[in-house]
Amino acid sequence: MPTENVAVWNLTQYLMVRWGLASGTFAYSALLVGGVLVAAILPYLLGSINPAILISKGIYKQDVRTLGSGNAGTTNMLRSFGKKAAAATLLLDLSKAAVAYWFGFFFFFGMTGGAIAGFFVVMGHIFPIFAKFRGGKGVACLAVVALCQSPLTFAIVLAIWLIIVFGTRFVSLGSVMAALLYPLILRAFLGAADGGNVAFAIAAVVFVVLRHWENLKRIYEGKEHKLDLSGKKKKEGKNNGNPTA
Questions:
Q1: Where along the chain do its domains lie?
Q2: What is the mean pLDDT of residues 166-170?
């Protein structure tokens, strides 16, 4: 069991000490397995609550997945409904990722629990059980997880994203490049002792990049639309834009 990052209070470790559970016993193993499952399942369910879908259906009476790029994320909300809808979507996505990470952190062995919860909140956002597994692309959620794990890592990754996006106006390209560099930068700051956190980061990045595959293909073919910084509502068709979050 991880020992390098459990100096902070967490419920699982507290219960082990409180109940006097010895390592290797059935009760100890059961609590350990149960802790992992809770740290994974609850964040996944929280991640499955997709603000883009709720806002588009509840306020605008349209499913954002039938508009623009077809993605249930911040960029498509910006293109389809404007800045206010996009801002609300982004804020809620960031909030649910932060809540999920810190829940895992204080529930199960500090950063290890945070890494597990962070991975599964991203999975919930990408493959939401409440929306037939058709969600967003996980970038905003992954960014919050990076911020919680290492603020310096987040700052560097954000700078990379901004440079690429404002230099090319391809949000998808900036997202993919920043995501690919995130585990490497995280490893540099956390060190070898926190290999589990880096492993979960790599796993999340794989899914985020795969969800951007069509965007990358359109960039290669010269068909990807660039970010309109005006944020005006557009209705040109389903392939209008490059989703990120």
A1: 11-221
A2: 92
Beta-carbon-side half-sphere exposure of residue 79 (alpha carbons within 13 Å): 29
* Cα 198 to Cα 186: distance, rounded to the nearest angstrom: 7
Entry pTM: 0.87
Taking 80 as the threshold, does the pLDDT of residue 193 lie above it? no
| Pairwise CA distance, residues 58 & 36, whole Å | 34
Amino acid letter at 83? K
- Has residue 43 got a pLDDT over 60? yes
Per-residue pLDDT at 110:
92
Torsion of CA 135, 43, 244, 208, to 10 degrees: -90
Per-residue pLDDT at 229 exceeds 80:
no
Distance between CA atoms of residues 244 and 173, nearest Å: 9
Contact 118, 100 (CB under 8 A): yes
Q: Given its phi and psi angles, is residue 237 left (phi above 0), alpha (psi -120 to 50 degrees) or beta?
A: left
Give yes or no for a contact between 154 and 147, defined as CB atoms under 8 angstroms apart.
yes
